[in-house]
Amino acid sequence: MLDHILSILIFFPALAGMLGFVVNKDSMRSYGIAVAAIEFFLALWLWFAFDSNVSGMQFMEQIALVPTFGINYIVGVDGISLFIIILAAFFTMIGIASLGETKDVKNMIITLLFLQMTMVGVFAALDAIVFYIFWELSLVPMLYIIGAWGGPLRIYASVKFFLYTFAGSLVMLVGILFMAYFYYQATGQWSFSILEWYRLILPESFQIWLFLAFFVGFAIKVPMFPFHTWLPYAHGQAPTIGSVILAAILLKMGTYAFIRFSLPLFPDASVYFMFPIAVLAIIMIIYTAMVAYAQKDIKQVVAYSSVSHMGVIILGTFALNVEGITGSVFLMIAHGVVSGALFFLVGVIYDRRHTKLMSEFGGLASVMPRYATIFGLMLMASVGLPLTINFVGEFLSLLGFYKQSHILTLLAGIAIIVGAIYMLAAYKKMFFGEITKEENRNLPDVNRRELFALIPLAIITVWLGIYPKPVLGTINTSVEGVVQLMHEKAISEEAKKRIPSLDILINKTSAKEAQ
Amino acid sequence: MLSPINVSIESLNLMTLVPMLIPIVGALLIIIIDLFKSNQHKSLYVMLSLLILGIDFVALIDSAGVFEKNGTVMGLFDVMLIDGLAILSQFIIVVASMLFIPLALTHKRFHEFSYPEFFALFLFMIAGFQFMVATDNLILIFVGLETASLALYTLIAMHNRDKSFEAAVKYFTMGALAAGFFSFGSMIFYALTGSIEINQIAAVLSANSYEDIGFVLIGVVFLLASFGFKLSMVPFHTWTPDVYEGSSAALAGYMSIVPKIAAFIVVMRFFEFLIHSGVVWLEVILYMGVVLTMTMANIWALVQTDVKRMLAYSSISHAGFVMAAILIGTTQSNSALFLYWILFSFTNLGSFSMLWISRQKNLPAHQQSDHSYDKFAGMVKASPIAASIMALFMLSLAGIPPFALFWGKLYMISSAVTGGYTVLALIMALNSAIAGYYYLKLIVYMFMREPVAGYDGRVFSSNATLPLKTIIGIAAIGTIFAFLVVNQLLDFITVFVYNSGY
Question: What is the ipTM of this complex?
Fold first, then answer.
């Protein structure tokens, strides 16, 4: 069964979703939780069986799909994708479990299960076309979730979300086809397998154009400044569960794709574009932090802060060394946990008061102490307090980029600290001071169902903040493989210099083993 | 003294005519049955047509076998030309017709189907299209084209809406103009080269290295205009939305597939050598035509308020997309044309059939046209399965993987990349994104909007019967599981196209 565990992980939720049409409406919630729990335990089993000393792909499967044109169903997992897959399974589970009173709950759960298939598929795919299939397919359930369960502007928001991403990924598709064509020219065979593409060394001018084509698709998904305008709408209108999945998993597709495609395929172009992208990332960090400060709506604050932190992930990725990339992968998970939790928390208060305006609240700490505590913890994590999960990722990302440029890193570091202002200000407005509104006096504190989602997230936040090694070590092994590959593939002097070689490091360990 | 002409029967290779003769004989059979006993139920004629098309299909499999063994076959004084293109396109024509004809078995009665002539004309039309693709003789192409078109005009006019007659006359007028252009263009090429066979024309022109380039270009302009009308290329597209609106949804779906593939084959035969002749001007004109057709049709489709008109513009846009294959002119792109069109016919026929099963006899007051967007608002509440299937077809048309049309788009854009048309590939990709909007609009109406006042949920399947549902089921299965057969299709098509020298 372990041979096919990835395919099971991908298609089990979809199959369960299809069977879900038969399940009675009243039992649907239990069915959804059961399916998602099975999926989560399968994902944990994958982690258990995963060999963290291997840097390459594990559990690979290959089935021919369109062999004439080089399209095969290839899946595999390494340290980079492993934890995001587990995170996706985890968030679907707690998302379904903590689902509040929703209309058409059956449709919602079926949609979530289909969404889970596409999420796991994206992170497990090792064939560009299969990757593209899941990547595009993930838009459809999300479109439905925003469009059918969202706020008043839901249709505009969902269509904008869809079209933005769709347009970007079509440009990426042209890039994919070009890459396959270059591979065909070099080897005389069509192939869309990423691992085979890794072996291809392209001239720098080609790399730059292809990098740009892929960049459009990924940057819109992340979303990077200036392509981020769809995200506030999507978050603002989406139901809680939609925002949680969007922030925790879907945005990670973009940053993950940078590490899976852009860096190893186009190392020279990555170095070439390192500083422009870093500047964009820093603009993203500072600008969205300032916008977040100006928001009146708590959900928008969380949404913009989420974009702001995605900037740090991008910065870490384009540090192009082991520390930076490891940090950014770890930060992807941290960001998923923390911003997912924050969106849950916003959903909790929204369910009670049906408003998200901060001016409507005040002094909540005395009415809802448990809620205020968890919110406070997550907020500290989001700000990047040491001993929380975000700190590890942010620190490593910045450390990585410090090796490339001191000034830019300093700027980003300051921006993150300044970014703390808006979060603390928002917290103050909502939780401290007098209770200004009568309606807020008798708000019930978080209930059991909500705690089921929030407690595990809080535990992870602290646990991985204090002891990140089990996750970090596994990520590190795979990232070393990627960086080494990039160093070997790089052609220009500049790139060789910027991307460190790990020979010394590997030699050292093997020497140690020899002793 | 005139000596008697001696032609041996074997040299005529009459077997090449068999696939075309089958529907003609079938059509005559239907008329004869009506002669003996009239006023029979339409189901008789539908099943007869289906059987005849089935026999036609078997005959095609036969000629495909011959082609695989012996290569291209000529027949009837070398007028008939049975090569890979002819066989592939006849497969598409016959299969699409087989999927279309059961759509006549509607729940409601429409008077066109009570005439046996409808079915006889339908079979004559198929024979016309088959002649058109299975020859490189300009006169036979013309005969096939006119046989098919005249039959088609009548089929449109037989529908019972006010607009049907208008549509038929409009189509007829435009068609007559196109026919005039075609004959004039052919005349110029005959005057230049003394031949009406496309391969002869190509040989003579390249032998004298295009010395009368001016006349060649005039001839090309006329032929291009003529096929521009048939393929509804911008700016010759103006008839399309009106004609689609006037004809029944089923017939509109049929028109978006079969007449166009026949025209594509002729264009491919004729423009293939011209594109490779290095006449830059022609390439520019075609390039502009392709880009304009794709883009403008997409933009017009954005503002439509009727789903059928939207699908009409969308099929113009798809035709423009496929026309790019002619411009690129490699084996890969020509194979992509066939792959695209096969997958497109499933999806598009499916979506038009979905409109067809929701066709009302009379328009309610709040509805402006037969298939306005408003009608579909909140459809998911009344009939979730129908809404999901419709959404599936829309997603496929938009090119969302892994549904059918995605594979066509993928291979087509790839052929543009391989052929060196990078900008064209980008334009094609971006056009798919624009098109996403109007397909999405229908999904938004169906899934996310509340039903309008005076809403009646039964309307969505008011016309449904088992045969109609079966056809839609086949189309839906074809759309979802296309990825399982793409490889075989691609191998099959590529062999046929390659061995025909395209």
Answer: 0.90
